[in-house]
Amino acid sequence: MLKYPEQVFARIIRVDHEEELFLRLDTSIQFGKSSNLLGLVIMTNPGSFSFRDHEDWINFKEGFTTYSVFEGYGKPDLTMQNVIKVIREAYHSSNLTPPNGRVKIVNLSSIIENKKDLVEHKHSLALEKMLENKITTNLINEPIINNEYEFIKTCNELDFVLVGFADGIFSSRISRLLNWIENPAIKDKVIYARDNQGRLSHPRRWRTEPYLMEKCISIFRGFLTRQSEVSFKREGYTFLRWNGLYSSDAKFVVRDNSNGLQSVFTPGRVQDLVWTSADLANTPELSKWDTFACETVDDLEEVAF
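Below the sequence we write its predicted structure tokens.
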């Protein structure tokens, strides 16, 4: 059995026939069989991943094909293997079932280059060639990396976000992104490991410097454990307000913890429940009712008062 059976999907675009300039987009690691999007990994730029097992790949890479877009599934490179190991180990050590779904990879630049010192030069050269060849320049800069609204919106819809960058490349972009991830809406789900000098570590370092991988797994495990505890607490119904009366006159504002909807509830009259997304407990009229210590029950049918 393969040590890393996870498949990686990607699309690669040839920018120019004369220069060896390629972009990698729409990259995702497939865990299990589900098509659900689990999380996001943000790195500097694509490195060594390729479709070396595809018979048409060499012809495409050498510019011998009429088409300029190559897509397919391939094996994870070393950096992706490190990401896979961190995700697997974090789930396992949190006593969760193995991850089942896709993890999307985005980069500060889509330019493919595995030599750190050439990345920014290649990025600039690709931009020039894209303008010459009338290729939309948006392809080299993924929208969520360059738009704060899109970034927050995308991250908020996912279970987790792993972040790691090569030191000294696209410094202004990294600084901007680090400001964005401080947003309270997503801050808790962003996972990264800093080295002993306080620098964010790129996933490729997690193998040569094992303490960084262990640190990332530990942080990720803590996040998943907290999320599991929150999910457990979201079961049942919580009493938010009470009108202060008893018997058949008693009324409560209750919240369905599975979906956050609220309703006014009369014990023994479950059939009268009308659930709404409105925050009933804090409406002018109902906010005057007594709080009820946020007591939670599993089944409203069993409530007697």
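Residues 237-302 form one domain.
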